[in-house]
Design a protein that fits this description.
single chain; mainly alpha; signal
Length: about 80
Amino acid sequence: MRKAAIAIALLATLAACGSREALRPAPGNSLPPKPAMAPTQPTTTDLLTPRPQERPERSEELLRQSEERRDDRFDLPPQ
């Protein structure tokens, strides 16, 4: 009986994940106010899309050749 209840709860949770509709503010709420210098009110999609500063591109700078390390006068053995 307990396994059946867990299975039903799991299926109900998975069924709820499948709903795909446009995001809207909760009833009684509105979108954030328009930024002062923005020409138009940003849409929900605009607000959810990360800008380059929020998600920078990865730098794929590979080490092309090995280089010898310079002597480090602070690299001392343990005492």
